Amino acid sequence: MPHPPAPLADALVQTGRPARVEGRHVNLPIELGSTMVFDSLAAFEAARDARYDSGTLYYGRYGNTAVFELEQALAELEQAAGVTLTSSGVAAISLTLMTFVRPGAHLLVADHVYGNTRAFCDGVLARMGVETEYFDPMIGASIAGLIRDTTCAVMFEAPGSGTFEVPDIPAIAGAARAAGVPSVLDGTWATPVNCRALRLGVDVVVASLSKYLSGHSDCMMGMIASTTAHARDIRKTVMEVGDKTGGQEVFLALRGLRTLKLRMAHFDAAGREMAAWLAAQPQVKRVLHPAFPDCPGHEHWKRDFTGAAGLFAVVFHPCSDAQIAAFVDALHHFGIGVSWGGYESLVLPVTPQRSAGTWAEDGQLVRFNIGLEETASLKADLAAALPLLNPASE
Ligand SMILES: Cc1ncc(COP(=O)(O)O)c(C=O)c1O
Prior knowledge:
Blueprint: H1 8-14, H2 41-49, H3 65-78, E1 82-86, H4 89-100, E2 106-110, H5 115-127, E3 131-135, E4 151-157, H6 169-178, E5 183-186, H7 191-194, E6 204-208, E7 222-226, H8 228-241, H9 247-258, H10 260-279, E8 284-288, H11 298-304, E9 311-316, H12 321-330, E10 335-336, E11 346-350, E12 364-369, H13 375-385
Parallel strand pairs: 2-3, 2-4, 4-5, 5-6, 10-11
Antiparallel strand pairs: 1-7, 6-7, 8-9, 9-12, 11-12
Helix pairs in contact: 4-5, 4-8
Residues 88-90, 114, 157, 161, 186, 188, 208, 210, 220, 222, 338-339 line the site of pyridoxal-5'-phosphate (PLP).
GO molecular function: cysteine-S-conjugate beta-lyase activity; pyridoxal phosphate binding
InterPro entries: Cys/Met-Metab_PyrdxlP-dep_enz, Cys_b_lyase_bac, PyrdxlP-dep_Trfase, PyrdxlP-dep_Trfase_major, PyrdxlP-dep_Trfase_small
Protein name: Cystathionine beta-lyase
């Protein structure tokens, strides 16, 4: 059973730390190691039999003290029955889906998911004989009409990568559960600071901890948080495949956890300020940000989230690819790169992939990750580069 919820700020500071010992360090040390040894064969055999349980020290690949502390901290924050760490967010997604699929199975995936989720479904899963059907992320409870006898899972994201539509999480998760199909939500954008999706009826929350949770662009890690019904099967898949997190990364993620709430508050305020400023620029056709009333699913965001992240997108009025490249290249504070959620601002032109529908917006989509820099500096940087998108600048 999940623990009763502690106030979020308290949990961020208190969880994932060693038990009371006089003269202890504030933080756990970086824990490295493969083999663990036992004083008796009986103790070894007991550990081997319980090796799939978070908390059992058996062999490095199954986790160590620091891994288990972080898993327990995340279980408390997500209100999950179990959390398993993975080596990346992509590993969290693929290993969760691998737990549920069978040859000949049907998988429902929201059309706006992260590109690598789509690549995994269309690549590895297709080769394993799994049929992926993409659905309109705004489908809501009508997802029930797409569920077949062979449907093994419903995978979605809130908001969508790059285009930021916010699905109706309880409606989709509720319809899936009513049909006996597990729902999987990529909750990377929100973090447990802004949405605890298991409480909304989702069965499994996956996230890239490489983003906001570790928060400093120096760590790759993923997380799978789930209800009692799925926690053990998922953990077994992760262990059987042999995925594991490194000691240094666990140390960095635990450190990032301590400041997550503060950083998310900054990203929320700065992201909204930057999005509003961009919306007022003549080169901007539209801003895609869940906190803005014209964002598809804004009402779901208002109902189910307690805040926003600092990642959003802008649709610029139609211009050439060369103009977009010149604009992006001219920015000083915004690095050009994938990923997000670190302390630094980033920019990336995005081409949405769609198969259930089409991306109808006329204009160029560019994604911004707002970091911890002064918003005045970011605005000045953008103001200097935006004229490169004007028709006359070609
Ligand atoms: C929404 C989303 N989920 C998952 C991932 C994958 O995470 P990782 O890079 O840790 O594998 C990403 C990465 O960009 C992402 O944007």
